[in-house]
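Quick one - first record:
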Amino acid sequence: MDTINLIAAVIFALALVHTFAAKTFERIADRSTRHAGLFHLLGEIEIVFGLWAAVLIVFMAVLGGGKAAIDYAESRQYTEPLFVFVIMVVAASRPVLEAVKALIASLARAAPVRTAVAQAWLCLALVPLIGSFITEPAAMTLAALMLAPLVFRPGIPEWLKYGALGVLFVNVSIGGTLTSFAAPPVLMVAATWNWDTAFMAANFGWKSAIAVVINATVITFMLRPHLSDAAPGIGAEQVKVPATVSAIHLLFLAAIVVFAHHPVIFLGVFLFFLGFTQAYAHYQNPLILKEGLLVGFFLAGLVVLGGMQQWWLQPIVSSLEPTALFFGALGLTAITDNAALTYLGSLIEGISDEAKYMLVAGAVAGGGLTVIANAPNPAGVALLKEGFNDGAIGIGGLLAGALLPTAVAAGFLLL
């Protein structure tokens, strides 16, 4: 096991390096003729952890036998990747998206600023906070699809796009903390530590809401000169979907959220959803099945690789004092999924209430720093990458764009 653990840590490190090099592979692909397809594949951030997870399973099979490798792969919990795939597809369906668009457009028209500015602000502030009720992956999907024509388009400076992306990722990560069931890192500890929605709202929610509003306001003010009401906006499409069809889609979405911890049930609901979209295909746009599957593949790979990192992560988490734990969690979240980090914390016997708070606060505050920091981030990357140069998101650019909103989130969560 020591050998396997060491190999798993090395492969995990290589996967992290690969995520930072993804945009470089895209640039190589643009200059290559014979192997452009291969380099484009390697440049897809969504395949990185699935690819390296396969490498790990091969090593495990060679060193420990095929049965041991299969047993390990089957011992992992894949509910979160499956849920993110399903919720992405349903939330991005035309009836759901247009219902949310209509709400945002009506609120924007009532705002005392230009419509495009109000729309951008609402997508960066209100939608992440709604994630506390519809789950963070759904909020990320809806916000990304509505922001794409507003912000992530030609004519917006690249550095501002990275700033907006950083704010979106950070706000979604902290915006889900108003309840105990929407943010993956909170879900990992809520039952074990008896944290209910009232506890989350009193200890996390109000601080997160203030940070979300500040982050959204600052980046929207910076984007203001580049936001045009003439550009394709949230209200550009006339809502033609019948109210009954929209209501049924919203019921599908609600059912999937309610049964988020029961994959057999939410996958069954999803199959009924697919049948309904076929029956009323004239009210649908193409479902984002490819994007959803890629994100699910990414997260499943992270589950496989992350499961072998407990041997070095848990000693770090358990050895830190509360304040150091906050900053340690904030930094570690950048290189491992924040839900995995809080889960390891939930296994520590006798952890103090202050340490519990600091661990989760640091994990959610750092949830926007990298693609792997928070489960919904790969969904945002998949839906927004075409708006960036080379059709890829640079991990360094995302990190730079997320630093200031992360500092704001950390400051309020430390109160």
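second record:
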Amino acid sequence: MPDATIISTGNAGLDTVLKGGLPANRLYLLEGSPGSGKTTLALQFLLEGVRRGERVLYITLSETREELAVVAASHGWTLDGFDIFELGSAEEVFGSGREQSIIHPSELELGETIRLIQDEVERVHPTRVVFDSLSEMRLLAQDALRYRRQVLGLKQFFVGRHSTVLLVDDRTGTNGAPDSHLHSLCHGVVTLERLTLDFGAARRRLQVQKLRGVDFTAGYHDLVIRAGGLDIFPRLIAASHYRDHASEAVSSGVGELDDLLGGGPLRGTSTLLTGPAGAGKTTIALQYVDAACRRGEHCTIFEFDERVDTLMARAKAFGLALASHIEAGLLVIEQNDPAEISPGEFAARVRREVQDRGTRLIVIDSLNGYLAAMPQEQQLILQMHELLSFLSQQGVATFLVNAQSGLVGTMTSHLNISYIADMVVLLRFFEAEGRIRKAISVLKNRAGPHEDAIREFRVDAQGVRVGAPLTSFRGVLTGTPEYVGAEMPLMEDRGVRA
């Protein structure tokens, strides 16, 4: 293959990060701590070669063929089509017609090991090679200078042999620190990391440290290991996903609610529904979902807090036919486990719904659950900002539910995202005529004008109701509102009250 050829790594996510794949006939380093997914990614790299009819070689200094077969079988793969050169068994098997040689590494000097590897490469003439792992070679060398010379010798050996080589290093011989000598010798470096959180599943991520001559996507990219290989979620860059869309208002189907919001949120804007628990934030979002589905638009609800069956039962009690929208294929409700999902995976799910399903309206319920899902993420607000920018570029109307701490009195929020949202809708409990009622108001709307009035808000078996403006209020923004006006503007029952 010509030197300018770009070859696939066998992993769609990594190919996206690399903007196509790896330049062929070069030496690359795949490094990471044990359990980060190096062997799985290396097998995917060779499987892609087998799929393309290429000759591939797996050189293993530590694992046996049986151990590799177990890893492959866990993903539904086989090692058919692989040439495997194995150094890891005390038994010596020669001349048996098998495709590998087995030699005990403790009986070999480093130079002899390298010579045997070179002989096997000369015999197989592979297009793709995986060398697993460099830690064994580092131990045999026992000297940093000798080790570097041997790696440099390997690099020079493969020059002109039309082989793309992946060197795997678990960094056990460097106390977990990157090996700068290797980085300088290799054409590219891909680093895998495994992070243990205080609670929940371990998080894994990938970073391309360097790749000469390629404009790759820098930064960390979340990943998970699933049956079938590594699922890599390239970091979301909103600016590269713009598409033209109409800036029309999104109606809720409730005229008074649309009037309060200046006709409704515009396409490509985000609306923050904030207030105490039980004030009706999710119900307002569901009202917009129901209206959008009735117009034939695709919608998606990402649920972090409430169970889907509970959400469906509540919507049915309010006269919202979500079940029929799901049956029609217009609505998808995704339940997210806060202990399992990473920011990159969540962003990938949102992208899939928007780009593959054509979703026009998204609800994230709630931001508190999203925050709980990523307690140790330092750049959570920045990632949410990028996600909302992507949705804005795609013309998607987004509703964010945010429950403030407390039910009455002064309330606060641990996630200050109000500056990111284009519209902020505030809900509050208030007392009047011996009853607990709810008030709704709009604090800001970047997209245009909105009412500055405070209206009563109620939900019953017939759906959402928004009353006339209430002028005789005290202390709404303090969290302890009190209505001191006449009884006439207050809404009365029209059936079973929720």
